[in-house]
Design brief:
With 226 residues, this protein is α/β, with parallel strands linked by helices. The protein is 46% helix and 15% strand. The protein has 10 helices and 8 strands. The strands form 2 sheets. A 4-stranded parallel beta sheet has the order 2-1-3-4, sandwiched between helices. A 4-stranded parallel beta sheet has the order 6-5-7-8. The protein is globular and about 45 Å long.
């Protein structure tokens, strides 16, 4: 399974895939040379994603591709899906998250935090509005978080101060749930939960993506057996 992200964030997805699909071999590509993706153009991110996918398929002979990055999923998923349709399955981290959220009937006021590029793409907003128009949501770009996490600044006074600044934004007032729409953010999930005194529901994509991948591999007779 080829998995890629801009850095360490996608390891949260890779870890879930390893737990749920223990017989599969994983090749992880962390594109730290171009980190962070969140402040780059959609076209440039798509270019990186195409080159990485080509490497994983041609050099590493992967049988499936997981875009373990919300920004790259927003910028490049459709192009990769169309390019490799009928060849290999390509899985993004956004659609499994959307499916989990719209299935939860308890949600009334949802927050979304992500990189600038993911928020600017409108992908979560469009899918939620179309699939569940009754759900109220607010989206906030939190551009410092991925770089902060990548540099190891989490579970610290620095990360708590940055988080507090973002999460106190009026856009997130009165939310009952929050999508962590960047695969780096689960690494600070406990800090986010503590900020809200564990009173809101947090969504991250790792397990849902792993389950979606398992379903696809099973349907296409690609599951590794022990």
């Amino acid at each position: 399974i080829g998995i890629f992200d801009s850095g360490i964030g996608g390891l949260t997805v890779a870890g879930a895939i390893k737990r749920i699909l223990p017989n599969e071999s994983i090749v992880y590509f962390g594109d730290t040379a171009h980190l962070p993706y969140g402040d780059k153009s959609k076209e440039l991110i798509a270019h990186y994603a195409v080159e990485i996918t080509r490497f994983l398929l041609e050099e590493k002979h992967c049988k499936a591709i997981v875009i373990a990055c919300n920004t790259a999923s927003a910028a490049a998923y459709e192009a990769l899906r169309d390019t490799y349709k009928g060849t290999v399955p390509v899985i993004n981290v956004i659609d499994p998250m959307i499916e989990e959220v719209i299935a939860d009937e308890s949600l009334r006021n949802l927050g979304i935090i992500a990189t600038k590029t993911t928020i600017a793409s409108g992908v979560y907003q469009e899918k939620l509005s179309r699939r569940k128009p009754s759900l109220h949501y607010s989206a906030l770009a939190t551009p410092l978080l991925a770089s902060m996490i990548e540099e190891g600044f989490y579970n610290s006074n620095i990360s708590n101060a940055v988080l507090s600044r973002y999460l106190s934004d009026q856009a997130l007032a009165d939310i009952d749930s929050l999508i962590l729409a960047c695969t780096h953010y689960p690494l600070i999930k406990s800090e986010i939960s503590n900020y809200y005194q564990k009173k809101i529901k947090l969504f991250d994509s790792a397990e849902e993506v792993a389950l979606k991948l398992k379903s696809i591999l099973k349907n296409e007779n690609l599951l590794a057996v022990s």
